[in-house]
Amino acid sequence: MSYTGHFRVWRGDAEGGELKDFEVEVNEGEVVLDVIHRLQATQAHDLAVRWNCKAGKCGSCSAEVNGRPRLMCMTRMSVFAEDETVTVTPMRAFPVLRDLVTDVSFNYAKAREIPSFVPPPGLAPGEYRMAQQDVGRSQEFRKCIECFLCQDTCHVVRDHEENKPDFAGPRFLMRIAELDMHPLDAAAETGLDRARTAQDVHGLGYCNITKCCTEVCPEQIHITDNALIPMKERTADRKYDPLVWLGDRIFRRDK
Ligand code: SF4
Ligand code: SF4
Ligand code: FES
């Protein structure tokens, strides 16, 4: 079954743009990306759209459909009424390059700021051994496809460009949590307290656990409950632990 769908698609570049109306054929079983491709093939040949896998795995077709951050290739047209106007806009938290394509380099810069895995001393690569029960908690975070929809939806940066320098965003705070839970990570032995750094350097304190990031994650990762809240609890525990407090005071006096 086919019908003519009504679409409103943002067209423009870094200088500015506007929503344009289109009528495009929609066929049974199609997703939003199918329709965007048909629009590109039949009416708007220079429409810029980023995509690769069309299977929800490369994380490149992120956009906002009716204002909600979504993967276009995983958003079925059947969730919309046939007479509904479907609006497709670029991710709002990142600068537009052209049409539906945004510059997501903010995220790569944040990724580089996270200290990487510290190999355990005395073990060569190939000698690492981990038990499943020790990696079970953080394995969920490895499902991330880096679509950056969580980064786009988080209110801390969505409308607050000024917060970007101090806030890594849910995807990268989750990366810190993952490394903090890693059974072989030897960061602590080098004096790096990952959870404390999340709070002091990467802006964990900005997060007020609204769970919006979790709601839009196409991999259904429990970002807030399983990564951010446990890390907040650990930093709070340490902050208010009298022994840690005493240790900090002595250390500061020694210095
Ligand atoms: S839970 Fe925290 S990181 Fe996630 S969207 Fe809300 S404020 Fe942002
Ligand atoms: S955590 Fe989820 S929403 Fe965020 S970048 Fe990874 S897959 Fe995308
Ligand atoms: S095209 Fe790869 S996730 Fe949509």
Structure report:
- The chain has 255 residues and is of the alpha+beta class.
- It folds into two domains: 2-102, Ubiquitin-like (UB roll); 105-254, Orthogonal Bundle (Fumarate Reductase Iron-sulfur Protein, Chain B, domain 2), CATH 1.10.1060.10.
- 36% of the residues lie in helices and 16% in strands.
- The protein contains ten helices and seven strands.
- It has a five-stranded mixed sheet.
- Strand 6 (96-98) and strand 7 form a beta hairpin.
- The longest helix has 18 residues, at 223-240.
- The chain is elongated.
- The mean pLDDT is 94.
- The structure holds iron/sulfur cluster (2 copies) and FE2/S2 (inorganic) cluster.
- Residues 154, 156, 170, 207-213, 224, 228 line the site of one iron/sulfur cluster.
Described by strand count, sense and barrel closure, the largest sheet is:
5 strands, mixed
Distance between the termini: 75 Å
The radius of gyration is 22 Å
Strand arrangement, largest sheet?
2-1-5-3-4
Shape descriptor: elongated
Proportion of beta-strand residues:
15-25%
Helix content: 25-40%
The chain-level structural class is alpha+beta
Bound small molecules, by name, code or SMILES, are: iron/sulfur cluster, FE2/S2 (inorganic) cluster
Structural key phrases:
metal-binding; SDH/FRD_Iron-Sulfur; 36% helix; binds FE2/S2 (inorganic) cluster; two-stranded antiparallel ribbon; Ubiquitin-like (UB roll); Fumarate Reductase Iron-sulfur Protein, Chain B, domain 2; alpha+beta
